[in-house]
Amino acid sequence: MSIICSSTIKSIALKIGFSDCGIAQACRLSEEEYPLDGWLAEGYNADMEYMMHNSEMRRDPRLLVEGAKSVISLVLAYKPDRLMDGPFKIAQYAYGEDYHERMKRMLYQLIAAIKEQYPDFEGRPFVDTAPISDRHWAMRAGLGWIGHNNLFIHPTFGSFCFLGEIVTTSEVDHYSDNKASNNEHTCNDCMLCIEACPNHAIVELQDGVYVINARKCTSYNTIENRSEQLPTELNTRGFIFGCDICQLACPYNKETPASFSLSDERKNKLESLPYADETLFNKFRKHSALARIKYWQLKRNIGY
Ligand code: B12
Ligand code: SF4
Ligand code: SF4
Questions:
Q1: How far apart are CA 161 and CA 159, in angstroms?
Q2: Suppose 246 and one of 64, 79, 141, 149 were both cysteines; which one would form an S-S bond, judging by CB atoms 3.0 to 4.6 Å apart?
Q3: pLDDT tens-digit profile of 185-233?
Q4: What is the mean pLDDT of the segment spanning 278-301?
Q5: The pLDDT value given to residue 1
Q6: Please, what is the end-to-end C-alpha distance for the chain in angstroms?
Q7: Bigger pLDDT: 176 or 268?
Q8: Cβ within 8 Å of residue 253, ≥6 positions away
Q9: Are 143 and 22 in contact (CB under 8 A)?
Q10: Which of 128, 134, 207, 277 is catalytic?
């Protein structure tokens, strides 16, 4: 099998429209690096039972793709050029087309383009579609670091970016350095994200290791929680789908460029969504990240 050139892959990825690309050697993530067991033991996954399954596979992509040698990590920035107005807020990641669809299309495009140069290349694309920890692979691929707000932060695009991977059985000529491991890039410990969270959902699991207690988090409750009522103590600050508060507080997101232009038409649609009837909402949620919730959850999140 041919050894593929990392800089060729990166330049194809950028041409396709990804914001950044790096490649890490496939290996097992230790509990120290990815304290999944500790997080699950505390029940911080709330009712996301899928996080309890395949945890060994989630740590080791070689169990996901037999013979995997490399993980190609892709970043797709999504910061919009303006925010929606009005009393209700939707997290910025849901402003545009459903990222699962968009990213998957781009990942397949990338695989096809690599195959043109290396016909024996075999790779499987992932974007929230299998047990693999996107953030850790982005960090290992030298693209940035994980902040106390638990998000992957890119030095240029901040944390407003989606992540995806191609796990491949091919080896590459050069693996990127994990810059976060030698402190070249790290979270600056300002704690602004922790202070900003209105629900105290960012908690210290062990000394200096912060995780999200999903039970308390607005993002979890407005998207993943299927109960009839939201917890009475939840302070959403107007977010009816997802939450961006701990990202907006982070200094690394202040000077980042916009990567998505929010048209007047789309902005109006987003602003009128809380008042939409079921038919209109169902029409909107197709090809949107809002497809994750049903109409009754929207109404519950709004409070009527
Ligand atoms: C489950 C999940 C959720 C849950 C739980 C969140 C959580 N942090 O665990 C809920 C529903 C709450 C959620 C919310 C959101 N999510 Co989410 N979510 C996921 C999912 C599916 C798995 C995450 C996971 O493995 N959690 C388990 C815990 C144990 O692991 P962890 O969160 O990675 O945390 C560890 C590391 O941060 C590490 N760590 C911390 N600091 C350091 C420092 C160093 C040096 C090291 C080595 C390690 C380290 O320790 C932590 C504890 O284990 C991923 C997709 C995927 N397959 O990876 C998307 C994902 C993380 N989500 C994403 C997004 C966009 C969001 C939201 C921003 C959406 C929104 N606006 O509402 C919020 C953000 C909330 C937040 N502050 O994290 C993106 C994040 C992109 C990015 N730039 O990081 C992902 C990667 C999806 C994607 N493909 O793009 N999410
Ligand atoms: S997404 Fe919102 S509720 Fe969840 S940890 Fe961040 S600020 Fe807190
Ligand atoms: S707000 Fe401060 S502590 Fe939180 S992730 Fe950003 S740099 Fe790190």
A1: 5
A2: 149
A3: 689 899 999 999 999 999 999 988 999 999 999 999 999 999 999 999 9
A4: 95
A5: 73
A6: 59
A7: 268
A8: 79, 158, 159, 160, 247
A9: yes
A10: 128
Place of tokens 């429209």: 17
Does residue 162 line the site of ligand 1, with CB under 6 A? Answer: yes
Residues in the ligand 2 pocket, defined by CB under 6 Å: 197, 199, 201-202, 212, 217-219, 243, 245-246
- Among 103, 136, 112, 185, which Cα is nearest to 28's? 136
Tokens found for residue 244: 């961006």
Amino acid identity, position 24: A
128 is an active site residue: yes
Confidence of residue 151 (pLDDT cuts 50, 70, 90): very high
b/e map of 82-111 (b: 16 or more CB within 10 Å)? Answer: eebeeebbbbbbbbbebbbebbbebbebbb
Query: What number does the ligand 3 atom closest to the CA of 191 have?
Result: 3
Two tokens, residue 137? 């692979």
User: What residue spans define the domains of the chain?
Assistant: 6-80+96-182, 192-302
